[in-house]
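Summarise this fold before class:
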Amino acid sequence: MPITITMPALSPTMTEGTLASWTVKEGATVTSGDVLAEIETDKATMEVEAVDEGRLARILVQAGTENVAVNTPIAVLLEEGEDESALEGYAPEGGPGQTGDGSGKAAEPEAAPEPAKPAEPETAPRAEAKLAPAPKQVAAGSGKDGRIFASPLARRLAGEAGIELAGIDGSGPHGRIVKADVEKAKASPRPASQPAKQAEAGKAPAPAAAQPAAASFGPPSAPHEEITLSNMRKTIARRLTEAKQTVPHFYLTVNCEIDALLALRKQLNAKSDAYKLSVNDFVIRAAALALRDVPDANASWGGDRIYRYKEVDVSVAVAIDEGLITPIVRQADRKGLAEISSSMKDLAERAKAGKLKLEEFQGGSFSISNLGMFGISEFSAVINPPQGAILAIGAGEQRPVVKDGALAVATMMTCTLSCDHRVIDGALGARLLAAFKGFIEDPLTMLL
């Protein structure tokens, strides 16, 4: 029988994507492993491969189509021996809101009490759970501190419809509000008791409350142009808003003298043309070694527990045209400076071309954001959930310092650590920064 190919979920945060291009034409024969299409996700442009053999009989979603929901049928494949008659009366299975992996098999609808209420995609709740896990005993989508727990898709739909999440009863796991709950609220008249519910919910702060609908912000009166949001920009806006609303940030800052580091870098770069080390390569190496020496800081928040990572995987922010992405240097504490440099050059180049693989930017135990090359002296970065910390690196600048009671000039670099206070306390963060500073100011120790 015909096989439905659906829009795959290519990242845990992906709820929709752009079908950038088809690499095979309608009617073409494909085999397992052939690249069928390129999908622009919220993070990168990725290739989708066929897992079945057959003929691409119908393309249901044309190239260039934006905002295609995960699990929407995008094409139909006929197996060997089947002809066009097999498509008569055939309705593609799958659709937005159903679970599936986009592997080419017809998607199985999730069981639900009422077929008209499709369940949330699996990927959305999983990604949200890392940001703001719900308590085990929760009703009506609310936490004991007045916090409202809802999937990212449910928040967006409620915002677009102008519906307050505080007035919706969640039917998802642990009372989480999911898409079906918002759809039900949109279709049902608002009960008279709802204002009372909203007033009760308003007694406590609700950091994860629904954001205002986009339509509530009218265009400015001054001359302007409207810029359509890319999938990546939408994801950045949503995730960083959630991070600032749900993650209790605190900040620690140190000034590192880097004259010895600059001298060592110059010496090493002169020895070989095979690599050209950057200051950022030293920063990654120093942070990785510091996390190795202070393993309790290499952790993330898990709701009712803390996850301490056994490997040091450092995410490094890379600016691209659509926003930013954080490719990962895996096991960075086990890599030397030359290997880190080579890995980062390759990752950054492919990140800017939108060619990173999923495992190359999903995950990571700690993040680094370096704006020093833009002349920024110091800044504080927003934590990338569910990670426990992010290190912001400023520019190396010559500043007056006091050495042995005398005024001198040194090249200083300001570094600010943003910590999730649920995972890292002040003393632990201070130990991590002290270890990092030690490696930066005595760079020969990074070569051991």
Q: What stands out?
A: Residues 97-145, 191-215 have pLDDT under 50 and may be disordered. The longest strand covers residues 389-403.
